[in-house]
Design brief:
Layout: H1 15-35, E1 40-41, E2 46-49, H2 51-56, H3 59-77, E3 83-89, E4 95-101
Parallel strand pairs: 2-3
Antiparallel strand pairs: 1-2, 3-4
Helix pairs in contact: 1-3
Length: about 110
């Protein structure tokens, strides 16, 4: 479903770039899902991840994960635009990061 199953055409405005981003996002989200049971995300851009796992990720990977979640959410809704991503600790719901992703070209 969503970015992980990009069988439906993406919105025309960012078509090819969005599809490429979705494919990359799908790979990263698949890796994260298999790496830890405390990782969950939804189509609204919300992420739950174990605090220890989040803090162990290099900042570049954290940024990449946030962007992957944003691509997933944009693909699910079919409406390219700004996407707020909120990362919460799965242990206590604490906000670990919150970012608005506005660029969907890479």
């Amino acid at each position: 479903v969503g970015c992980q199953d990009a069988s439906e055409p993406a919105p025309e405005e960012n078509g090819a770039r969005l599809m490429q981003g979705c494919a990359e996002a799908g790979r990263l989200l698949g890796q994260m899902s298999s790496a830890g049971g405390s990782f969950r995300y939804d189509r609204e851009g919300n992420v739950r991840i174990g605090r220890e796992l989040w803090t162990s990720l290099p900042s570049g990977m954290q940024d990449g994960l946030i962007k992957a979640i944003a691509y997933h959410a944009v693909y699910e809704t079919g409406e390219p635009g700004d996407q707020v991503v909120t990362v919460r600790a799965s242990e206590n719901d604490e906000i670990l990061a919150q970012q608005t992703v506005t660029e969907f070209d890479r």
